[in-house]
């Protein structure tokens, strides 16, 4: 009887020491002396895992372990894994853990209430996870949540390094980042998309496919965006559109400074389209039948949402359209080198210069009945009047479209 107990104890020690290692020495020494049972059970287990160089790097704790005769399959309940390779050491807990060796590839599987914590503040929560020790890879085939101190990432499928620093998440990707605004407030920024390779160490998230960036009423949509946490900026490209209560911007690519809530647009020579902005107002408040559309095209734009300021440069063109009854009418067109416009919107404090657009540099104004030219022009939204300033000229057109009744001066009310 004592001899049998000794053999069982030796077999148990062999299983505990070599959860991961494929050691011919151990198998040769203890394999032939294993009991005839196909598996055995151990309570309150502590298993040490070694790498190929014989260095201990992981400890597995559990309430109970079921070990197969060949050591290649182990099942542990209420598992806790301590990975000493990271500092502070990584911790993994789950209700059930499995160790399998398939075609000489070691695989650790964890199920139910899986929680992995790595490094300083990085963690993963899911219901199923596979870990490949030799490749140092984690695969999560079910929805998961990855967190850092200020960012939460969710998605359907995840593959990453065990440190959770780099990887790719796919399907229903959602990133929520809590950042401080320029005024010191904590504000959430949400980014959604289809696929997201990430590098937490560098603070880079690259999101592709049906991308949307949301921040306090602003929505940015595009094909691809890269978000950098060091600068709190997003670079967007591919059918880009920015919408908020004030204005709609469209372009091929742009840069969005999330912290200052500012959009930067600069068209490249190769851009297939010219960036544009549009804004709808109503001559009669809340009466959709009286809307007016201001449409802007320019090579460069800067939109500061907090100030309601839109600055445009290079080949500026503004067109205003009005709906009168069922007829869409082109009211006027303005071309210039530069534009600075301020919107009042729903700001509680009246903005300086709100409701006024300042044009400068080779200003040309054209409408059905009149035209004007000058160095500068100011358009007042409420009165819908223009002041043309500096070498100003204005004229009307006859029935054949020829200019008549020309006047000139330093300042002309148009």
Task: Describe the protein.
- The chain has two helices and 26 strands.
- The protein has 414 residues and is mainly β.
- The longest helix is centred in the first third of the chain and has 16 residues, at 2-17.
- The N and C termini lie far apart (112 Å).
- Residues 1-36 have low confidence and may be disordered.
How are the SSEs ordered, and which strands pair?
Layout: H1 2-17, H2 24-30, E1 39-50, E2 56-68, E3 74-83, E4 90-102, E5 105-118, E6 122-132, E7 137-140, E8 144-147, E9 151-155, E10 157-161, E11 166-180, E12 186-199, E13 204-215, E14 218-228, E15 233-243, E16 248-257, E17 262-266, E18 276-282, E19 291-297, E20 300-304, E21 309-324, E22 327-342, E23 356-367, E24 370-380, E25 385-397, E26 403-413
Antiparallel strand pairs: 1-2, 2-3, 3-4, 4-5, 5-6, 6-7, 6-8, 7-10, 8-9, 9-11, 10-11, 11-12, 12-13, 13-14, 14-15, 15-16, 16-17, 16-18, 17-20, 18-19, 19-21, 20-21, 21-22, 22-23, 23-24, 24-25, 25-26
